[in-house]
Design a protein that fits this description.
By secondary structure, the chain is α+β, with helices and mostly antiparallel strands. The protein has eight helices and 13 strands. A nine-stranded mixed sheet has the order 5-6-13-7-12-11-10-9-8, with helices on both faces.
């Protein structure tokens, strides 16, 4: 079926894309072959404002629609030069994906020292896309997102907590400075303190449509937080995305990440969630996720072209 390419127009498109991703998730049997709604929200409300500021959405999001207006595919970046192809399984053809690659090369690549560079992603079992990327001059890179998952049809085991820690929900705005500082320490352990830029960015996290403070799980100590895991429950697909997960360096190897993840899994299980996801890129986190969630995992591989 013929599709028509157009740029993102307005806020109504954003909510249509969210519904499109939910349909794709369901049709793919609750697998992450395209983005989930929580990942889209996290990128739009937090990532675009705090990590990788972009131009306006109409310049970086592209839709392919049928004659009657049904979304067949969406192309969007996550960071400059790093683009993702979201495709409805009923429209997943080589011809459509070739159009998406051409649009990504034209509009979403980055230029440095006279060279253009673009990264795209393909599931490790998506042979059609892999073959197409090879034909278009892309080569696989070493970076792989390991998409761990767990079905929530059995009880979540308890985790014995070390003395001095309490697992609970994040509190009100008065706790945001401590929550932000813990995140900085968890993800920037070797950075000097003067590079810390404050805590107001956490308001962007809480603006995400699916944010729930009761699912923002922390391991609290007397002077702040030692570990955190935030859960994004999408009741339309009954799936949950875990992002981020971290432990402050001086509190590592005490089972705190396992404890906050397990508490969050129990809470979303009580809400009716069917499956939980978390993405890992490194051996340490991957070992944790495979043990707390399950060994079930899809692998999204990064491909690169330079010209």
């Amino acid at each position: 079926m013929k599709t028509i390419l157009r740029n993102y127009r307005d806020e109504n498109d954003y909510w249509r894309i969210r519904q499109f991703l939910r349909e794709v998730m369901s049709l793919n049997n609750l697998r992450e072959f395209s983005w989930s709604v929580p990942r889209l929200d996290y990128w739009r409300f937090f990532g675009m404002n705090t990590i990788h500021p972009f131009a306006s959405l109409p310049e970086i999001i592209f839709l392919w629609e049928t004659i009657d207006g049904q979304i067949a595919a969406v192309l969007n970046p996550e960071e400059p030069g790093n683009a993702f192809m979201q495709v409805h399984p009923a429209f997943k053809t080589k011809e459509l994906e070739a159009e998406m690659i051409a649009a990504a090369e034209k509009c979403l690549s980055v230029e440095c020292n006279g060279l253009h560079k673009l990264f795209l992603w393909a599931d490790s079992q998506d042979l059609q896309r892999q073959e197409l990327l090879k034909e278009e001059g892309f080569s696989p890179q070493g970076c792989t997102e390991n998409q761990w998952r767990r079905d929530l049809d059995v009880p979540i085991p308890d985790v014995q907590l070390a003395d001095g820690y309490t697992i609970r929900s994040l509190g009100d705005e008065r706790e945001l400075p401590a929550r932000s500082w813990a995140s900085w320490r968890g993800f920037h352990p070797d950075e000097p303190d003067h590079k810390y830029k404050g805590w107001n960015w956490y308001h962007d996290i809480q603006r995400c449509p699916l944010y729930r403070r009761d699912l923002d799980i922390v391991a609290a100590i007397d002077d702040g937080f030692a570990a955190c895991a935030t859960f994004w429950f999408d009741d339309a697909t009954r799936t949950v995305y875990i992002e981020p997960v971290f432990t402050v360096p001086e509190h590592q190897r005490r089972g705190l990440a396992r404890a906050v993840i397990s508490e969050g899994l129990r809470r979303v299980q009580h809400l009716g969630a069917l499956r939980a996801f978390v993405g890992g890129y490194e051996p340490g986190p991957d070992a944790l996720y495979s043990s707390v969630l399950s060994p079930a995992c899809d692998h999204s591989q990064q491909w690169m072209k330079e010209w």
